Amino acid sequence: MTVLYGWGPMFGAPSPSPYVIKCDMQLQMLGVTFTRAIADLERVPKHKAPYVEDEGRIIEDSTFIRLYFEEKLGDDLDEGLTLEQRGMAWGLERLLEDRLSMIMAHERWLVDANFDKGPRQFFMDVPEPQHSALCKDVREQLHTMMVRHGIGRHTREERMLLAERDISAIAAVLGDKPYLFGDTPKAVDASAFGVLASCATPFFDTPLSGLVREHTNLRKYIERIEWRYFGEIVWPAMAA
Q: How many whole angstroms separate alpha carbon 16 and alpha carbon 10?
């Protein structure tokens, strides 16, 4: 039995986490039969989602989950790509996950109005005054992490300039193809969809949504993948 742990549709996207979205899509691409369950971050050592339980074994982190199932099944999500294309695909994945997703997270968690509308929901079961103290502490820790990463040292205008270049680069690679490397999706398409859908959602007040949606090919790309992989997904309800 295989179970994917994460969170279902929220904030106008298939999950509040682009990494849960990525993992869900890649498991489908690999033909894995699995169920979905709400994550308990205290249950796993890294305290992050997604994680997968497969035949009693816990695998954490979307990249390691992919590698685990590729090895187990003898499959390759990048089958058909040349060595050069594989290098390009890995570089695009790192651009998406190591910078653009960080800018997206900064917009959600450290812009007050967006935090109040979105991530604050994760802490609503905590009574006052602990609720306010916890939110303050979490955001301060995230700000410190963003500064150490480097993205938090920039102004919002500078972050959006970087995001515009990142998003335009993805749009340029996609061109008029159905997927980033041709007619069939590869591993990087799951990363791209997870991050781009998270940026493009109109739920939050952020320039990121417009930066994605101004590219017609990216809008169609998001719609194409959402219809193919996320049209009929059902997650269990989160505990009240």
A: 5
Contact 172, 219 (CB under 8 A): no
| CATH assignment of 2-73, among 3.40.1010.10, 3.40.30.10, 3.10.290.10, 2.60.120.560 | 3.40.30.10
Give the DSSP H/E element, type plus range, for residue 139: helix 130-149
Q: Which helix (H) or strand (E) holds 166?
A: helix 156-174
Work out the angle between the directed axes of helices 187-200 and 101-110 (0-180°, nearest 10): 30
Q: Taking the CB of residue 67, how many other CB atoms lie within 10 A of it?
A: 13
Instruction: Using a cut of 0.70, tell me whether the model's pTM lies above it.
Output: yes
Q: Is 77 helix (H, G, I), strand (E, B) or coil?
A: coil
Joined together, the tokens standing for residue 28 give 């489908």
Alpha-carbon distances of 38 from 109, 176, 202, 203, 234, rounded to whole Å: 21, 37, 24, 22, 12
CATH class of 83-230: mainly alpha
Residues in CB range of 102: below 8 A, 6 or more apart: 146, 149, 151
Quickly count: other Cβ atoms within 10 Å of residue 131's Cβ: 14
The tokens for 177 are 């193809």
Express each pLDDT in 182-218 by its tens digit.
999 999 999 999 999 999 999 999 999 999 999 999 9
CA distances from 80 to 94, 105, 186, 192, 193 (A): 21, 33, 9, 19, 20
Q: Which residues of the chain have pLDDT under 70?
A: 238-240
Q: How far apart are CA 175 and CA 57, in angstroms?
A: 40
